[in-house]
Structure formats: C-alpha cells, structure tokens
Amino acid sequence: MKPAAVVFDVFGTIAQIGGNRLKPYLQLFRLLKKYGREPQSDDSSIIMTSNEGMIGIAEKLGIRSLANFSDEWMNQLAAIEQDLYTELESVQLFKDTPGVIEQLQGLGIRVGLCSNLARPYSMPIINALRAHGIIMDNIFWSWQAGLIKPDPRMYAHICHSMNLAPHQILFVGDSHDCDVTGPCKFGMKSMLIDRTTPGGLAELLESILKPPIQAPQHSASLTQYVN
Predict the structure, then answer these.
(1) Does residue 79 belong to any structural domain of this protein?
(2) Per residue in 53-91, pLDDT tens?
(3) Is residue 214 part of a domain?
(4) Do β-strands 110-115 and 5-8 pair in parallel, antiparallel, or remain unpaired?
(5) pLDDT 10s digits, 91-145
C-alpha cells in the first residue's frame, strides 16, 4: 500500500552543498572559543532552532559579553558571513530529486520536507525546487518549529500539520537516528538513503510502485520499509 505522504530530509537526501565545505558555523564556534567561550552541548540545537542571522546567533551564544563587537570581531564575523554566502550559492539538488518528486506528486502522494538546519540554508532549497517548477506546502524547518529531529514533537508536528496518521507517512533520509529510528518510534514508516552508493531515490520510487512480495536483499544504499 503506497503512503499518503513522503517526507524527505534535505541535505544528504535530496540536496547537497557543492564544492568545498566552508562550514561557517564551525568557524563561528572557533571564533567564540578564541574569545573565551567553550563549546556547549546545545550549541548546534541553538543554531538550528533559531530564526536568526549570523550576528543574532552570535548574540544568543553570548559573544556580546566576550568581544563587545570590536572592529576585529566584526571583521572576523564578516569573513565568516562571506563564507556562508559562498556555501549557500553552491547548494544544489541531486540530479534525481526533481523527477522523483514530480512522479510522487503525479501519483497523488503528498510530498514534504523536514530538516534540521540553520535558517540561511532553507531558501536555497526552496529556490532550487522552484527552478524545476516544484512548489511544496508541507515544509518543516527546525528553525521554524523550534524543534529538531529526532524529538518526537517534530514528527507530531508533521502529522498534525498534514492531518495524517503516522502510519500514512513514509520518512526518507540519510540519518539512522533522525530519519529512521525517530520516525519509526513515532509510528511512521521510514527509508534510509545512502548517497555514497548507487541507487538514490530511484529505488524509493520503485519500492512504492512495485512493493516487493518477498523481503528484498540487503542494499548498501537503501533500507526497506521499516515499521
């Protein structure tokens, strides 16, 4: 039985950052450490659940009391922001992404996105999809929801927003914890993608169109449905 909806993770699943990773937020953490702030366990969560730009994030992380926004600090931050813009410009969809999404929508399957990411990375994804004529209403960014996967409240938010029961949704992504274990514990089906091996999203479409009668052989690139 085909799912009522497929919800995709984003980076590593339907999109990637091209070229060399500049990792601007890692640079920010290093800059904070330079000014005396040690990394905290919730730093990544703060970045991915905040509706803030780079300076706003820095303020949340406590840089004002450390650097007092000196000229040196602002110059260093500007350089990091430039790396962020460069990285955002390199965001691209995987080649198979537009075709698979269009085919799923053509089958009457609702398609959504759910990703843990910093706010600036969301618009390049929207623009890349729009460039292929793909419009989505069911998009769940961590920075908008104030939640990050695998928090079960994120999966509850998805179900409530889409007005679907968990078992009606297939979650697809490249993280065992966030895209397989978390959704399954909440009652969704899930599928694991590994973009380092052949297969990609084509296997997802095939599994929906032609569900296997027998248990499929182990695949290095894609897991079977997991209840």
Answers:
(1) yes
(2) 877 887 788 766 555 657 777 788 889 999 999 999 999
(3) no
(4) parallel
(5) 999 999 999 999 999 999 999 999 999 999 999 999 999 999 999 989 999 999 9
Give the global pTM. Answer: 0.86
In this structure, the answer to whether residues 58 and 165 fall within a common structural domain is: no
Q: How many domains does the chain have?
A: 2
Q: Kindly state whether residue 154 falls inside one of the protein's structural domains.
A: yes
Give yes or no for a contact between 225 and 183, defined as CB atoms under 8 angstroms apart: no
Instruction: Quote the CA–CA distance of 54 and 100 in Å, as a whole number.
Output: 34
Please say whether the beta carbons of 226 and 184 come within 8 A: yes
pLDDT score of 59: 78
